C-alpha cells in the first residue's frame, strides 16, 4: 500500500454582500479554499483543506510512494516543510482522512475514541451595534448553543463594552460568554500596535464584572511574561495560541504557565498528528484544549474529531454569524454544510475518516488557477 498521487486545487467564492470580519480592516469580498487530495494505490482518496500551502507542490515527492498509514513519519516531514515553506498542515488532515477510509474508522476513533459528539460555541465575526448583538445572542440561545464568543476591536473600548452590556442584559446567564480581544496578531496591512499589559489588565477587570468565561488573545502572541502575569492577576481564563506555529513555542507557553485555554488549529499549526500529543500535554497540565477554527467545514471537522476523540472539551468553536457568515458560505466546498443539532452539538458519526463529501460541481465553478 502506497501513496500514488497528491493533488492540490484552489477555489474562490465571491462574497456579495462582503463579509466585514471583525479582525480585518478590509471587508472580505471573496472567500478562498484550498483542497488537497491524497490518493493511494487502491484509488481511495483522503481530503484536507486549509491554507494555500505555498511551496508544498515542489516537495510532494517526499510522500509519493510512501505508506499512507505512517502518520508520524509524515507529520515530521511536514514539520520540516513548515520551516521552509507555507503552512502545509492540510496535507496531514488529508492523510488522516485517507487512513480512516483505509481502516474503516472515523477520525475521532483514530484520535483515541473518547467520544463522537462535541458541543459548539457560536463564534461571531462581525462588529454589530449593541441592539443587533443582543438580538444575535438571543438567536444563538434559541438555537441551542451553550456559549457565544464576542469580538472586541471597535473604534473605542466603550463601544465594545456597550455591546457586552447589551448581550449580557439580553441573555443573562443563558449563554456562557467569551471575548476575543484579537491582540495576538494582525493582518499584513494593519499596523496598529497590540495592547500593553496595563490596557489588557484594565479590560480584564471589566470583563470580570460580566462573568466572562475567557479572555482570548489579550496580548501579542509572544508576550509570554504578560500572559503569565495576566493569568495570575485576573479571575478570567486566558486563551490563546491560535496562530502559534511550532512545537517549541507551545512548550514555552506550557512551561511558563501562559494560558488556561490552548487554541491551536489543526490546519494552521502542527496538524492532527502532533496536536493530538499536544492536547494530552495540555490536559495533563490541567488546562483546556479547544481549537480555534475559522476556515471551512473540513478544518472544523478535523478539529472536532481530534478534540472529541482525544481529550474532549466543554465546547469547540463554530464560526456562525448570519446573515454575513452562514454554513453555506463557510462550507461551500462540501456537499452538506456542517451544522450542530438543536442542543448545539456536532454528531461526528462513524463514517470512515472525516465523513465528508465534496461538492464537486461547486468546486469546479469556483476553481482558480491551473
Automatic annotation (TrEMBL):
It comes from the Bacteria. Residues 130-237 form the Mandelate racemase/muconate lactonizing enzyme C-terminal domain. CDD domains: MR_like (cd03316). Its cofactor is Mg(2+). Gene3D superfamilies: Enolase-like C-terminal domain (3.20.20.120), Enolase-like, N-terminal domain (3.30.390.10). Pfam families: MR_MLE_C (PF13378). The keyword Metal-binding applies. InterPro entries: Enolase-like_C_sf, Enolase-like_N, Enolase_C-like, Mandelate_racemase_C, RHMD-like. SMART domains: MR_MLE. Keywords: Magnesium, Metal-binding. This is Mandelate racemase/muconate lactonizing enzyme family protein. The lineage of its organism: Bacteria, Pseudomonadati, Pseudomonadota, Gammaproteobacteria, Chromatiales.
